[in-house]
Amino acid sequence: MQPNEIAAILKLRISQELLARDLLRMAYVAKDGTPRNVPIAFAWNGSEIVVCTTKNAPKLPSLRHNPQVALTIDTEVHPPKILLIRGRAELDVVDGIPEEYLQMNGSYEMTPEQRVEWEAEVRSLYDGMVRIVITPTWVKLIDFDTTLPTAVEELIRQRAERQSA
Questions:
Q1: Quick check: helix, strand or coil at residue 22?
Q2: Which of 38, 101, 114, 150 is the most buried (most CB within 10 A)?
Q3: Which helix or strand (DSSP H or E) is residue 136 part of?
């Protein structure tokens, strides 16, 4: 998929709404070769997805070995809106708390006092984190209005061919 195609899909209103959500699911291949799929908070910076994790997270050795990931961001209503993203994870070990981590946890309902307490707890717990930066290499938006899963699109095409024959 070409970068301009990726950018065009990610600029769509529905994509932007999904990229403003709190959580995504990140799929990767674990060290034992089996698939893993974890929910994780994220931030979208306009060109990359950034997730942050502990320096001892089990996913890190796996991502160092095989950095390919698949991300899903979706809604819980019918029909669902689904943004599928594939990319390569780049790991960046940082001192302290990345600003993205504080931003991505900013939409949870907290009073200002709770927010101060939460941030103090975070800063006292972590001496550093790992930023996982994913640049999209493939995307698909499924809104069940203008776009459908590829297999369903194929069935519709086949039905149209049968009906026109």
A1: coil
A2: 101
A3: strand 128-142
User: H or E stretch including 157?
Assistant: helix 150-164
Please check whether residue 123 is in contact with residue 95, taking contact to mean a CB–CB distance below 8 angstroms.
no
Residue 67: asked if its preceding bond is cis (omega within 30°), the reply is no
Q: What is residue 24's three-state secondary structure? A: strand
Task: Report d(CA 25, CA 164) in Å as an integer.
Answer: 41
CA 140/CA 28 separation, integer angstroms: 18
Q: Which two tokens stand for residue 48?
A: 């990359």
Residues 6 or more apart whose Cβ sits within 8 Å of residue 18: 73, 74, 75, 81, 82, 83, 141
Tell me the pLDDT tens digit for each residue of 64-98: 999 999 999 999 999 999 999 999 999 999 999 99
Q: Distance (Å, rounded) from C-alpha 130 to C-alpha 144?
A: 36
Give the strand pairing for 23-29 and 35-41: antiparallel
C-alpha–C-alpha distance, residues 93 and 104, integer Å: 18
